[in-house]
Each structure stands twice: as C-alpha cells, then as structure tokens.
User: Fold this.
Amino acid sequence: MEQKWKRIEANGYTILDNGDDRTLGIAKDSPVPILTVDGYAFKDFLRTGELAPYEDWRLSSEERAKDLARRLSIEDMLCETYGEEAAQARMRRSAYRLLLNIFRTGLFENPYLDLETSLRTVGCPEFVEKGYRSQLRSVTMLKNRDHTLPLREGMKLYVPDRFIKSHLDFMSHPVPGSTVVPTGKGALAARFTLVDTPEEADAAVCFVESPISSGYDPEDRKAGGNGYVPVTLQYRPYCAVNAREHSLAGGDPLEADADRGYRGKRNSAANEADLDLVLETKQRMGDKPVVTVVTLKNPMVMAELEPSTDALLVEYGVTPRAVVDVLAGAFTPEGLLPVQIPADMDTVERQREDVAFDMECYRDSQGHTYDFGFVNYDGVIQDERTRRYGKEHHNG
Assistant:
C-alpha cells in the first residue's frame, strides 16, 4: 500500500506527519520502531511488529486508555519514568493525600451514609443562604454615574437580546451562531415592567459577556502557519502588531513548529455584537440611563463600551437573582475587582508573565482606574479589604 505519511525534521526531534494534524513526535535517538499500517505511521511501543489498540491513533481515547491501563503495572507507570526510589516517594505522597481525606471524614471506620443526615445537610436553608450571600458579595460595581443605581421600583426597563456568531470553542469544536435571551431578563421581570423598545423604557439593562475568542485556528494551520492566533480581550477585530515575535515556550512535542508566536495575526470576538448592543442601546435611549452587566470570565478591554454606559456592574457567573438584587438596591455591591482591567491590547502584549500588577489599567470617563481591588459605589470604596488585598499591599 502507498505510504501516506512523510518525515519532517524539527528542532531536536522528528515529526511523522500522517496528514490532518495526525502527527507523531520521535526523538532523534528513539529506539521505538515505526509501523506502517494501511499506509499510516504508528509507534510500535511493544516492539512486536503488530499494532496494539493503544498504539492506534485512529481509535477513540477511551478505547486506547482502556487497553493501555489493562497492560501497565505500577512499575511500568512510575519506576521507568522516575526511578524506583522517586516513584515510591510519589506513591506515598499520593496515598497520604487520599488517606488523609478518608480519615478526616471518618470513611475509614464507616464508609456508609446516614441518609437522613445527608438530606438535612445538603441544600439546607442555612448553607443555601450563605452561598447566596457569597454570590451577592462578589458582585463588583465599577461605575455608577449620577446615582443611576439602584433602579427605582416601578421603572419600565428595556433588556435587549444578545447575538453570538458561529465560532470554535477551546477544543476547536464548532459552535453555531445563536440569539441569546439574557437569563437576567426573567429575574428583572419579577420586579420591574419590561418593554419591547427603548422609546417606551425609563432605563435599559444590557447583559453582555467578556470577549469570547480561541487562541488556535485550524485554518491558519492548514494555510502553513503554526495555528496560533491572539486571544483577544477586545470586541472589535484585533491584529497583534505589537506582540513578541516568538513565543517564550514551544508547543506540544507533536507539533512540527516549536514556536507559538502570533505576531501580525488577527482574531475577533465571537460576541462582538455585545458591544454593538450597548452602543446602539445608548444611542436609542438618548439621555435615559443605560446599565451594563458584564459576565467577566477574564480581563477585558473596557474602553470600547464604558463611555456608553451610565452604570457598569461586573459579575463572575452568579445567579440572575443575585444580580437583580444588586440592581434593585436590595444589596449594596461590595465585591473587589479580582483582576487588572487593561487600558488596551498593547498593554496586554507588554505584560510580563512573571510580574504581578504590571499592566497599564483602564481609566474610565469619570477618572477612575480599574485596578486590582477596585470597587466603586457612591464613590470609590477604601476599607480594610482594599488595604489588605489591594495592589499597594502586595507590592509593599
């Protein structure tokens, strides 16, 4: 049968490319033989001249793992890699960690559950209330111009739907485009009157998410690139003109290119429409207030949307009820900003991986800087928490 793989010499090792990103990485002095089956290359770890299931990359991960786990002993898994003495030490440390929890919880003596105790404990009102209060306390207020919040009882609110375009997730799986009804919309409806247009509304509440993007593009790889593109923290399309030319570290040993650099490449956020939603809502609302609630999954460039919102609230995946309680004034927001908000993508590219608090932080339209530990409600809050957890404390 015709050979379907090709050999590529890389930095210190050899790549056997089967096509479609199915590559084998081989050390220069590796004693592992190579099998050719159906025209493709496989590693013959067992040195039998026959392809074992776990050596066959065409099978599922589950099939391969099951086959290999069945074959390996503890000595195979640890001693060959770390040496007998180091392997035994690692095993003892792992056993200690596992046994410590068993002894702490009394499972060694009695591994059985008391069903009635479990039913009384799990989800009990006391624990649920503590959990909910923790959610409330985590919500961070960044901006509250002219005391926009809390929203007044009886207000008519406009809450626009979101749109997220089709994109690839972290594992490069396709995600179809979709219109998203914010989960907070239903929670707001329980307290306020929702209307269909900005013209009918007393205020608008926009629920958005920090920019969604993936740092790998299979199309770039197919075009001859290394596949890596910038992870953008802004909504509008981004070109990494100021990124370092070469990455500090290489990629997976199976990759032909050890450089993950993405200088000069472009990327865009799947939810760029979140920014348009805020800008268009502000334009249509005129002088009436616009509140933006951001679900923050990582630092983001706030400069694009902050000037167009009167109040800016950040939450980290809490329940809609908690957000609405803050919007309605049932709870005063007190959560500290747990990250630095960058002024732009250039400061993100300049950031040093091993230095804390080295980003130039965004300064908003009211002159406030969104730095680590920042919180603003009826004025910037300075208290024992900000003194303890703020940047000045850590730099001191």
Remarks:
- The CA atoms of residues 158 and 204 lie 5 Å apart.
- The chain has a mean pLDDT of 88.
- The radius of gyration is 27 Å.
